[in-house]
Design a protein that fits this description.
- The complex is a heterodimer of chains A (about 190) and B (about 425).
- By secondary structure, chain A is α+β, with helices and mostly antiparallel strands.
- In chain A, about 30% of the residues lie in helices and about 15% in strands.
- Chain A contains five helices and seven strands; from the N terminus they run E-E-H-E-H-E-H-E-H-E-H-E.
- A four-stranded mixed sheet of chain A has the order 4-7-5-6.
- Chain B has about 425 residues and is mainly beta.
- Chain B folds into two domains: about 120 residues, 3-Layer(aba) Sandwich (Rossmann fold); about 260 residues, TolB, C-terminal domain (Neuraminidase, 6 Propeller), CATH 2.120.10.30.
- In chain B, about 10% of the residues lie in helices and about 45% in strands.
- In chain B, strands 4, 5, 6, 7, 8 and 9 form a six-stranded mixed sheet that branches. Chain B has a four-stranded antiparallel sheet with strand order 12-11-10-31, with no helix packed on it. Chain B has a four-stranded antiparallel sheet with strand order 13-14-15-16, with no helix packed on it.
- In chain B, a hairpin with a 7-residue loop joins strand 10 and strand 11.
- The radius of gyration of chain B is 23 Å and the shape is elongated.
- Classes of the chains: A alpha+beta (about 190), B mainly beta (about 425).
- At the A-B interface, strand 1, strand 2, helix 1, strand 3 and helix 2 of A face strand 1, strand 3, strand 10, strand 12 and strand 14 of B.
Chain lengths: ~190, ~425
């Protein structure tokens, strides 16, 4: 079923009583072809979907990304805890998770060919864009601690999902704490 | 400056009535504007030589538009004392008795090519005709015709352009059990009807922003390990990557002349690099990228002032997100917000005098408006987890997304099961009905 039942968009009439009419500026028309053509030097224009679509909807079907969407599976050291949790709006690694990170550091230094992706996540509070940055800081905090233990830069990639991929979908702390996390994903 | 508001709960729940998907994606709830709304009687338009409901369906759209603006109070249809469709049949005394200031009547007539829609707007107190028009229409454009009538009525009575013929862009996310989620970028009429998908993606779509001429959308899409910034032409669907730094490319904001995009970028030298988030300006013609902020903190959500002279943006250099302003010509970065724990995602009113933003205090995320002349901040909503406020192009309304309305528990239960709507963005005034 494609219908969505519970979307909350609100319209809020704003009444300005200081009287002046607020006619928006009508900017000059943009020269469309220059704006929308894929940037010639941009590497991403070679992606199969770039510039695609001639009708109303542009369908995207890249199986690689579908796989990424569920990339929580770890093929690394299965006995290690692979999730670090954070306090609200914080990115410092709490003492109780330090040991887990150090265990990963030990594994990575012993296995220099192993690589890990650190995924940073947030709860839904705050704006989506800001949470991309916050998720990045969480992943980076884990990366820093790994590096301090001697793990090579080349073994670590960081990635931020912001609030986009929650593991719990509720709207209270019961869900939020589970979503404020950094996840070790081995390849 | 005063902003008046209060809540009303007129929910337009298309979805529960089993509408086809083109109409189903959006539920718009309306909040209320002024206390002293203009009383207007709208007589269901007569139908001549066509399906009997065509006329009244059209005038119902006009009524809904006017009510949604928060500036009008339409007379309930059950209170109509007469149903004239021709000026010669109007008895002003009838409508004065009912306390109506204005009267709108009209008709839809079968014409050789579709319909002819006529309407007449009266000042009841003066007993004068204010406006009368005849508009050609097709069966498929009757809603657009109704919105045009609403625009003309609004402008005649309020003195500023209506924004009923505009559109909104927004993103929906559906989490599917045991499968990847579906992300869709939509464009719908400003009243939520006529939604059509402009992009479907297995990965996240974020921060759609209309070009000033209303022909293009800039947005970010998650690809492999980061967000990539696109510009897509709405009419053709043609799209192209405009920014793809390793790191992040998001929060696009068009310059008023449409030649540049301000954006939030994170530059990483390699996948493990700790790149910083700053505001950059991309010249869409030359592709030249200029760094606008240079600070160790996170900078994001730029918005271009309507005069084109400055940007506001979010920075957490004080510890939490707050709004700052800096001239394009350079100079000091001035902090604008001091109230509340967080302020983020500012956008300008069309006249440049106000900023709408998300304001966080006591754990609630609400829409607030900052008056740039007086620095007065007003919180406008009593919902929580509000997102993405966006002004109508005439400055009369703000659309935003929220998770919790008044019925907190109900909202919790519903939304954890189903989809979310995100990042609504109101179009500019559109030159033609596309």
């Amino acid at each position: 079923m494609r219908a969505l039942k519970s979307l909350g968009l609100l319209v809020l009439p704003v009444v300005l009583l200081f009287g002046c009419s607020s006619t928006p500026e009508q900017p000059a028309a943009v020269k469309a072809p220059e704006v929308t053509k894929p940037k010639p030097e941009a590497p991403a224009t070679t992606k199969p979907d770039a510039g695609a679509g001639t009708g109303s909807a542009t369908a995207i079907d890249t199986s690689k990304e579908k796989a990424d969407a569920s990339a929580d599976k770890s093929t690394g050291p299965g006995n290690l805890k692979n999730t670090v949790y954070f306090d609200f709006d914080r990115f410092d690694i709490k003492p109780e998770f330090r040991e887990a990170v150090l265990a990963h550091a030990a594994y990575l230094t012993k296995n220099p060919s192993a690589t890990v992706k650190i995924e940073g996540h947030c709860d839904e509070r705050g704006t989506r864009e800001y949470n991309i940055a916050l998720g990045d800081r969480r992943a980076t905090a884990v990366r820093q601690l790994l590096k301090l233990q001697g793990v090579s830069d080349k073994q670590i990639a960081t990635i931020s999902f912001g609030e986009e991929r929650p593991v719990a979908l509720g709207h209270d702390e019961d869900s939020w704490w589970q979503n404020r996390r950094a996840v070790f994903a081995y390849r | 400056m005063t902003i008046s508001f209060f809540f009303r709960t007129v929910a337009v729940c298309f979805t529960l009535m089993g509408w086809p998907v083109a109409h189903a994606a959006l539920t718009i709830e309306i909040t209320e504007g002024v206390a002293d709304k203009l009383p207007i009687a709208v007589v269901p338009f007569a139908t001549e030589g066509a399906d009997a409901l065509v006329g009244s369906d059209l005038s119902a759209v006009v009524i809904a538009d006017l009510q949604r603006s928060g500036r009008f109070k339409a007379l309930p249809l059950t209170d109509l004392v007469a149903r004239p469709s021709d000026p010669s049949k109007v008895n002003f005394q009838d409508w004065r008795m009912l306390g109506q200031d204005n009267l709108l009547i009209g008709s839809v007539k079968a014409a050789p090519q579709g319909y002819e829609v006529r309407f007449f707007l009266f000042d009841v107190l003066k007993g004068q005709q204010i406006k009368a028009f005849s508009l050609p229409a097709q069966p498929t454009t009757l809603r657009a015709t109704a919105h045009k009538i609403s625009d003309m009525v609004y402008e005649a009575l309020i003195g500023e352009p209506g924004a009923f013929s505009t559109r909104i862009a927004y993103v929906t996310v559906q989490h599917k059990a045991g499968a990847s989620s579906v992300h869709t970028l939509w464009i719908a009429d400003a009243d939520g009807y006529g939604a059509r998908d402009v992009l479907n993606s297995p990965t996240e779509i974020m921060s759609p922003a209309w070009s000033p001429d209303g022909t293009k959308l800039a947005y970010s899409r998650f690809e492999h390990d980061h967000f990539v910034l696109y510009v897509q032409e709405i009419a053709t669907g043609t799209r192209g990557v405009v920014a793809d730094a390793l790191g992040h490319n998001g929060a696009p904001a068009w310059s008023p002349d449409g030649t540049k995009l301000a954006l939030a970028m994170q530059h990483k030298r390699h996948p493990g690099d700790a790149g910083n988030f700053d505001i950059y300006i991309l010249d869409l013609r030359s592709k030249a990228l200029t760094r606008f902020t240079d600070h160790w903190a996170v900078e994001t959500h730029p918005a271009w002032s309507p005069d084109g002279n400055s940007l506001v943006f979010t920075s957490d250099r004080s510890g939490r997100p707050q709004i700052y302003r800096k001239a394009l010509a350079g100079g000091k970065e001035e902090r604008l917000t001091f109230e509340g724990v967080e302020n983020d995602r500012a956008s300008f009113s069309p006249n440049g005098k106000m900023l709408a933003m998300i304001h966080a205090n006591s754990g609630e995320y609400r829409v607030a408006v900052l008056d740039l002349e007086t620095s007065q901040l007003r919180v406008l909503t009593d919902s929580s987890l509000d997102e993405s406020p966006s002004f109508a192009p005439n400055g009369s309304m703000i659309i935003y997304a929220t998770t919790f309305k008044n019925a907190k528990i109900l909202a919790k239960q519903r939304l954890s099961q189903e989809g979310r709507v995100l990042d609504p963005a109101w179009s500019p005034l559109l030159r033609t009905s596309q």
